[in-house]
């Protein structure tokens, strides 16, 4: 599914984010940037050991929840990996919505700073961190729509959803935003 917002577009696809050819691949990391399972494990595996070496060297103190940091992308077909740290879902009363929005907005800010025109996101926080997928879709897509409307870049924002459930949740929200 593709929806245009002025010169920019949001695309939804089902697939594996490590296979994307874009300027930036976003990782759903933890605040220690220690690596892990899920999309983080898949990205480190596909990118190779230089990703962790660079991350440790540049960001020994990790990255706060709701923020993101940039490294190069190792063997991935991308210029950069942005390691974004989403919130752990704790019922919705612990600032989770703001922190998730801020993880996305930091990545979109970094993309502009690094002059990157295409970026692929996973559904941050919706796996191990248990953020409900419908609520995550709402926050992720409205934050992205607002920022691309404001800055007119990056021109391609692709959400790579892992399976039909997450894809459906994102598609329902994007259909409403397209109206
Ligand atoms: N491509 C696209 N999406 C994927 C892929 C993939 N290859 N693999 C999984 N997903 P998660 P989180 C989806 O758990 O919730 C890690 O251990 C997955 O189905 O990867 O932010 C980190 O080190 C889900 O929809 O990230 C942290 O400790 C989404 O990606 C912690 O998990 C996010 O799931 C972060 O948890």
**What structural class is derived from the secondary structure elements?**
alpha/beta
Oligomer: single chain
CATH 4th-level superfamily:
Leucine Aminopeptidase, subunit E, domain 1
Helix content: 25-40%
Low-pLDDT runs: none
The mean pLDDT is 98
Which ligands, by name, code or SMILES, are bound?
ligand AR6
Looking across the biggest beta sheet, what order are the strands in? 1-2-7-6-3-5-4
Write the layout of secondary structure elements.
Elements: E1 2-5, E2 8-14, E3 24-29, H1 38-47, H2 50-58, E4 68-72, E5 80-85, H3 96-113, E6 118-121, H4 133-151, E7 156-161, H5 164-178
Parallel strand pairs: 2-7, 3-5, 3-6, 6-7
Antiparallel strand pairs: 1-2, 4-5
Helix pairs in contact: 3-4, 4-5
Short description:
By secondary structure, the chain is of the alpha/beta class. Helix content is about 40%, strand content about 20%.
Describe this structure in words.
The chain contains five helices and seven strands. Strands 1-2-7-6-3-5-4 form a seven-stranded mixed beta sheet, sandwiched between helices. The chain starts with a strand and ends with a helix. The chain has one domain (2-178): Leucine Aminopeptidase, subunit E, domain 1 (3-Layer(aba) Sandwich), CATH 3.40.220. α3 runs parallel beside α4 and α4 (133-151) packs across α5 (164-178). It has 179 residues and is of the alpha/beta class. It has helices spanning 38-47, 50-58, 96-113, 133-151, 164-178, and strands spanning 2-5, 8-14, 24-29, 68-72, 80-85, 118-121, 156-161. The model has no long low-confidence stretch (mean pLDDT 98). Bound molecules: ligand AR6. Ligand AR6 binds at residues 16-18, 28-30, 36-40, 42, 86, 122-129, 160, 162, 166.
């Amino acid at each position: 599914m593709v929806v245009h917002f002025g010169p920019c577009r949001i695309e939804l696809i089902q697939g594996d984010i490590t296979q994307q050819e874009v300027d930036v691949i976003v990782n759903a990391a933890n605040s220690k940037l220690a690596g892990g399972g899920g999309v983080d494990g898949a990205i480190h595996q596909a990118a190779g050991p230089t990703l962790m070496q660079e991350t440790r060297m540049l960001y020994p103190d990790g990255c706060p929840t709701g923020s993101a940091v940039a490294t190069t992308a190792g063997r991935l077909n991308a210029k950069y990996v942005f390691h974004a740290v989403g919130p752990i879902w704790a019922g919705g009363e612990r600032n989770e919505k703001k922190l998730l929005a801020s993880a996305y907005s930091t990545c979109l800010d970094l993309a502009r700073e690094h002059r990157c025109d295409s970026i692929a996101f996973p559904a941050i926080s919706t796996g191990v961190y248990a953020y409900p997928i419908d609520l995550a879709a709402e926050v992720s897509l409205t934050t992205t729509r607002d920022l691309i409307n404001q800055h007119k870049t990056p021109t391609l924002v692709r959400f790579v959803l892992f399976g039909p459930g997450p894809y459906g949740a994102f598609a329902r929200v994007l259909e409403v935003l397209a109206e």
